[in-house]
Amino acid sequence: MAHECDVDVSKIVTTFLLNTCRLPSRISSRDIQAAVFCAMITTTHPLEDEEAEQIPLITGSVAEFYVEPMLPHVGDIDVMYHGSHLLATPRGHPPPTELPAEFHNYVKVYEIIDTRFPGYVHLRLRYLLTECSDYGKYKYTEYKKPDDGVHYTYLLHYDQYDHKRESRHGPATVIEYNRDLLLCVHSVDYVSCLRCLLWPLQAAGWPARQRNYVWPDSATLDRVVSDGCDVVGVAHRQCRQDKRTGRCQWRLSFSRAEIVLKNTWMPVQQIVYHLLRYFVKTHELTDCAVNSGAGTLSNYHIKTLMLWACELKPRSWWTENLNLVRISVELLRTLSVWLTDTRCPHYFVNNCNLLDNSFNVGSVASKQLMSIDEAYLITWFINNYIRQCAQLCPDNVSLLFDDVSTSMKLQNAVSEVVCWRLNTSLDCLRQAIEFAESFIPSNVSEVSLTAHSCVCWMNELAKVDQRFSVYFSGIVLLKVACKVSENGGFNDELMHILSKVLGSRHNFNLCCGVLSLCNCNVELNTSELVELLLKSAVERLTTYRQLIARDFGFVVMVVTTDFEALYAYKRGDYQQCLQLSTQNVHPLLYAVHMPLPVIPIYPMFIQLFDDDLVSLTALTMIIDPEWILHTDGAAIDQLTLSLYLMTQCQLKLRQSVTSLAQTLDYIKIAQIRHPCKHTLDQLTLKLIERKAYRATQH
């Protein structure tokens, strides 16, 4: 494809990228998934030491990017985790006497020992730390073998876990999920590590080296160094086939530093990083894994290229006469030189080369990259990037790219894509909220909760949005109520869970009520305890609804008393339920914004349903056993539920035929204005339509 003026076209490409790589929504499904997977590590990857805890950290693209391109920039979700009972420390450094609160009261400290491969180390047990309960500091003893007193106990890494759908990828345990199911959109890479609270000696030169362009600045340097590093269980490529060496070698990980550094990049630098990753991946030069494989480029090489460029290039190089195509061409040529010379200098560790003779992409890729000029890259961006973005748009927009033979036609087509992108930002926010309301309970229902895991869930969800922490607490109370009903009583673990979820002063009365019932005869008070838990759960879920309506009511139509109405019906207060449901039907029926689903169909919610609704749910699952797993079928809409409760209450209260006839009209209007996408909605509306019609005939 030729254009009369490549300079103009490069401006079109640059403007397109700047306008479509937007700042993420306040809430995104990507961040929700990452938070849930981070929280789930506490139960999916248990430690041998039952008293120790997993401390997770979201890393990789989710944590590094603060811009959100139109095309995917997150392949999977990366979660690093370390045990609270293990610690690494630089060789020769005295043992710590104080540790962060996350650490256990008994900690093994491993000394970091150099190997002949820069960036790769051994871990040798050196100290045993014991917390002094009276003042919170740690005392230490040196570890010595009984026979000779020499410190020769090395820590080996090994596959500790045997999970379904898991594979190994470098140091990561990869869990693949079916992308058609609600359970997950992304796969997740879990990387076990040891925490090192100090900056490693192997990277001692990094903070002090000469920087001509003041990036990173001194405050960022101080923050990076104070965060220390991690050590992950993977050996150098040349050692992986050796059974002994391959298990005792570890790699220094600077993921924490990289997150901090990349979040200080200008938007243009983040966009270029995304473009380079996408370009190299499209040309099949990467395997998208950090230092894995036997000689393929990885995202880590692109990341290293960008880190060096941000440090070595002045700000003006990035911003003056801004041309993303030119910047990308120059950086790809730098990568070509690296491949030719078989060198990719580690950004943090001196004398560490991330390329060696085992790389099989060298000469061919180097020539290919060196031959790329602006004209080639402009054409590539239009055909392989912008056209892909256009495919996400409605047909009337994507069809504009059938003829972009002139700059004017290209500009018009690109402008339509940009407009569509800007106009759908609020819809993305709505979809993210809807996703969270299904994804969180779907995963809570799959795992066994503990007091520690509940704290982790609430903390991680609060980082995305505090509202989801409130939503989670309501779900936990429902799940505890299920457990109490199933087990016929309470136990210590459930009490510990409640103490974490209800630990605030606001919940003092509920805690006292639970304790009072637990101290009585369990058999006689189980129903009261369940009732108390359900009441509190509904209060939490109602608070969540109110928060969503208050802050996002301009995006989505959401009523706030649906859980209250459902609970009123369950306890037999039909008049209250009818009043609330009637109030909810009117705004939902004529809503301009698409309503959110009200309740995901998982066991903790089903206990709020009556027999008819439970039977319909069961019937749906018999007809389609996979129904509950799909994102478009595992919920019932607020409007459908409100109409159902309204009809049921009218029948229970023996209301007039006129009232039922009005409800029939509402049902017909709902079927026309809001065609049901959920199987359960369709069956529910048909059921109440038949019930109401029969009642009007008598």
Plain-language structure description:
Among the domains are: 45-264, no CATH class; 557-698, no CATH class. 51% of the residues lie in helices and 11% in strands. The protein is built from 27 helices and 13 strands. It has helices spanning 6-20, 29-44, 60-64, 218-227, 245-248, 255-262, 267-282, 299-312, 315-319, 324-341, 362-370, 374-390, 395-398, 407-423, 425-444, 451-464, 466-487, 492-501, 508-518, 522-552, 562-570, 574-589, 603-606, 611-623, 638-652, 657-673, 679-696; strands at residues 54-59, 76-83, 86-90, 106-114, 120-131, 138-142, 166-169, 172-175, 187-196, 229-232, 250-253, 597-600, 635-637. The strands form two sheets. Strands 1, 2, 3, 4, 5, 6, 7, 8, 9, 10 and 11 form an eleven-stranded mixed beta sheet that branches. The protein has a two-stranded antiparallel sheet with strand order 12-13. Helix 1 (6-20) runs parallel beside helix 14, helix 16 packs antiparallel against helix 17 and helix 25 runs parallel beside helix 27.
